[in-house]
């Protein structure tokens, strides 16, 4: 977390308290939403910069990679018991063996195309982190 993100979070919280404590009006709510979106953008940029600084070619093995990634992953939704659901060619796939087959086919195709594994995994983890951070942000 950097200073700009910290200040933006404080401003966002001020707008939210104003909306909650006073008579709710549209102007206060719009100001809160605008600041909330700014905080989300700054947080994503901060995570992206952190990952590029730490993983930009320095991760020589998976142990180093996961030491860097683990603190960024939210543990709020662990243990929910929900299964992975995919949308493949317009069909919803929720049976876990079929999900595994689809993912296996995708990654073997990527491997055959010659894309660097580290670049692919870094981009995939970054996308997952950015999506989960938007979901867990209240």
Topology:
Layout: H1 3-21, H2 26-55, H3 62-69, E1 86-88, E2 91-93, H4 96-113, H5 117-136
Antiparallel strand pairs: 1-2
Helix pairs in contact: 1-2, 2-5
Polypeptide structure, described:
With 138 residues, the chain is mostly helical. Helix 1 (3-21) packs antiparallel against helix 2 (26-55) and helix 2 packs antiparallel against helix 5. The protein has one domain. Strand 1 and strand 2 (91-93) form a beta hairpin. It is flat. Strands 1-2 form a two-stranded antiparallel sheet. It has helices at residues 3-21, 26-55, 62-69, 96-113, 117-136, and strands at 86-88, 91-93. The relative contact order is 0.11.
* Mean pLDDT across residues: 75
Distance between the termini: 17 Å
- Specify Rg, calculated over alpha carbons: 19 Å
Which structural class do the helices and strands define? mainly alpha
Tally of helical runs:
5
Q: Detail the poorly predicted runs.
A: 134-138
Q: Tell me the number of strands.
A: 2
Question: Any descriptors?
Answer:
138 residues; mainly alpha; 2 strands; 69% helix; 4% strand; flat
Give a brief description:
With 138 residues, the chain is mainly alpha-helical. It is built from five helices and two strands.
């Amino acid at each position: 977390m950097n200073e700009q993100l910290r200040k933006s979070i404080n401003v966002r919280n001020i707008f939210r308290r104003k909306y909650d404590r006073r008579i709710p009006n549209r102007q206060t709510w719009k100001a809160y939403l605008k600041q909330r979106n700014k905080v989300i953008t700054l947080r994503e940029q901060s995570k992206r910069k952190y990952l590029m600084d730490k993983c930009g070619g320095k991760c020589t093995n998976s142990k180093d990679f996961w030491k860097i990634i683990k603190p960024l992953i939210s543990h709020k939704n662990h243990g929910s018991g929900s299964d992975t659901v995919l949308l493949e060619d317009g069909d919803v796939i929720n049976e876990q063996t079929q999900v595994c087959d689809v993912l296996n086919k995708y990654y073997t195709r990527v491997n055959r195309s010659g894309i660097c594994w580290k670049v692919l995994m870094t981009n995939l983890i970054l996308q997952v982190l950015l999506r989960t951070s938007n979901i867990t942000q209240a």
